[in-house]
Amino acid sequence: MDLSRDDLFSWPISHWMEGDGPESDVVISSRVRLARNVTGIPFPHLMDDGQAERIISMVSQALAGGPADEPGPTADLHLVRLSDLGSLQRAVLVEKHLISPLHAAGARGAAVIRGDQAVSIMINEEDHLRIQVLFPALQLLEALAVCTAVDDALERHIDYAWDQRLGYLTSCPTNTGTGMRASVMLHLPGLVITNQARRLAGLINKLSCVVRGMYGEGTEAAGNVFQVSNQITMGQTEEEILSGLQSLTARLIVEERSARRSLLEEMKPQLEDRVWRAWGIMTTARVLSSREAMQLISDLKLGVALGLIDRVGASLVNSIMFMIRPAYLQILAGQELSPDERDIRRAELVRQHLSAGTA
User: Fold this and answer.
1) Three-state secondary-structure class, residue 62
2) Helix, strand, or coil here: 127?
């Protein structure tokens, strides 16, 4: 079940980055993640190398039930050992949201990744297993269904650490219970431009959710992209947690669309100028920093959603958002690059893809 490095790194776009689906003008992606541990083996930060290898072996055997081309929740899943990857390759997996920065830094971890990269299982991260499903747009319930199916398939062969009163036992107490973290990645330029983002951040916290940057805890919201996720994992079912997040997301979508309409009605010339300036810079620039590129992509994405520009589709803009990340640029170049060299490569990549995607 090993996955070829060429298959994983030859193209930067995962299924969830395609951007097609319900509410895709605001919601970039939906993610459901389940934390699980194995009975009788210490949590990853306490176990030895032999125990870490045992976890990897258990997962491999549990998923080796049938041919990869058979339909089912565990079809086309492939094992990748992080020790076999270089630092840039690990960083690409982080940029694709297939593993976490913590996982990438470890020496005893592995990942099981589906061919379309919509499903990944982090092995020996903070917990023994972290099963996650990433879908484009607003598809939380669909992601939960697949995540649960993979979880059930593993549980038929692995004895999970579970308590009658507490639920699933996890390394961090805040994940105990369902062990589930669900999140949506949102593009909220309207709320940022109209200075409403801070007010809504307070609302999000009151509803037992948390808002973070594009790559989760400790990251900034570059390009007006935010992650909103649940904080509570105990005392509610998976469906109840998703229902709450779905309701909050629906409200954020309404607020964002309202802010966009106000901008369109009250300052359309300025908004058009902002969008077309972004297009002009992106199609001609020779040097682009990551921060500047993300802001320009945000402006262009807003213009596409509002019908102010028709020279490029939303899917391509979404794709470029992830292509410009530092590790992928260096993988593409076949060598490590200095920050200045990355800025030059980034501008070149953006020009090429916008030119190819122009209607």
Assistant:
1) helix
2) coil
Q: CB-based burial of residue 186 (10 Å sphere; 0-12 exposed, 13-18 middle, 19+ buried)?
A: buried
User: How many CB atoms sit inside 10 A of residue 305's CB?
Assistant: 20
What is the residue-wise DSSP string for 229-291? EE---SSS-HHHHHHHHHHHHHHHHHHHHHHHHHHHHH-HHHHHHHHHHHHHHHHH-S---HH
Nearest CA to 77 among 33, 126, 118?
118
pTM of the model: 0.91
Distance CA 108, CA 51 (A): 10
Look up residue 15 and give its DSSP letter: G
Per-residue pLDDT of the chain (359 residues; tens, 9 = 90+): 444 455 677 666 777 887 788 999 999 999 999 999 999 999 999 999 999 999 999 999 998 864 444 557 778 898 999 999 999 999 999 999 999 999 999 989 999 999 889 999 999 999 999 999 999 999 999 999 999 999 999 999 999 999 999 999 999 998 999 999 999 999 999 999 999 888 888 878 877 788 887 655 555 667 899 999 998 877 888 999 999 999 999 999 999 999 999 999 999 999 999 999 999 999 999 999 999 999 999 999 999 999 999 999 888 998 899 889 999 999 989 899 999 999 999 999 999 999 887 54
Amino acid present at 236: Q
> Can you say whether the dihedral through the CA atoms of 31, 37, 42, 48 is positive or negative?
negative
CA 294 – CA 320 distance, rounded (Å): 9
**CA distance to 165, 200, 204, 207, 245, per residue, from 231 (Å):** 19, 16, 10, 9, 10
Using alpha carbons, select from 280, 320, 273 the residue that is nearest to residue 298: 320
Which domains does the chain possess? 5-260 (3.30.590.10), 267-357 (no CATH)
Q: In what order do the strands lie in the sheet with 225-230?
A: 77-81, 110-114, 119-123, 129-136, 27-36, 180-187, 225-230, 209-212
- Record the tokens describing residue 209, joined without a space: 């959710």
